[in-house]
Amino acid sequence: MLSARRPGGRNWMAWQTAWLLLLCAGLAAAKGPGVTWSAPAECPGSAVLRERIVRALRQSLDSFDQETSFNGTVVRDAEGYRLVLVSRRGAERGMRVIRDGDCNALTSAAALAIALALRAHAEEPPPAAPAAAETPRRTRAPRPAPRHRRVGLVAAGQTDSGTLPSPSAGPELGLEAGVGWLAGGLRGGTLGPSREVRDGKGGRFWLASGQLDACVLLIAERTATLATCALLEAGRLKGSGRGVDHPRAGSAFWIAAGGRLASAVRLGSSRYSALVGVSAVRPALRRAFMINGHQQVHRPAVMVGRLELGIVVDVW
Known about the structure:
Blueprint: H1 9-30, E1 34-38, H2 46-57, E2 68-77, E3 80-89, E4 92-100, H3 103-123, E5 149-161, E6 168-179, E7 182-198, E8 201-220, E9 224-242, E10 249-266, E11 272-283, E12 289-291, E13 295-298, E14 304-314
Parallel strand pairs: 1-2
Antiparallel strand pairs: 2-3, 3-4, 5-6, 5-14, 6-7, 7-8, 8-9, 9-10, 10-11, 11-14, 12-13
Helix pairs in contact: 2-3
């Protein structure tokens, strides 16, 4: 029987086996993070380092990603041993230097540092997807929240032009209360007396009235308020004759409606606030006061203007 024998057959099979072993070793090494280790001969080698990393992790290195690699270099110096541990993960790079007089302890420290870094990388959450861009919308700034409830006493002085024959002044007392952005007030006061004399004959006049306000707060801060109000006023306009043979006294019903703008500014941290208000009213009844039945002495103006200055005391 003829048989053909390949030259160098045994050597060829040996090379094939070695190549397969190297390939398997390369595939095995490709799993898990890369760890390279360079140290003096008296120090533990890379196999001992990997064993200590696995012991610290309590799991195989194959379960961690391959993007992370570590390069540890140990050199001997005058103080003992110095380790330079460089870590890489993608584009990230870090370096840590550890010193110890015992190279075995230094190797254990390197294993623990690598295990902690691998554990931290494994627990990082995945990057969040970028949020979709939203078109900015214009929104109105919220109005400041006012005090929910308030009650105050008002003491003020008022000046008037148009109700009596000449500009006049008088006191005013009142009570005001508010809830949220709404407020109201009840006031009472007097004006006068004011005199009007023509050709030695005339009269003396004054007004006593009450006023009801219904307001909306335009500004409601802790230190200041600004309110616009609708008001209704009712009272008696009185007069008495002067310079005539038989002087008499008379009165007329007074009713007027109008608007008011008022601001209060708190005085420091006290309960007191300074009050400033301006108002305009239109009398519904404008009775004329006569002397001797034919000579007019006074009649209220079509529009009346007023200014008030006072103090508000918060009682609740």
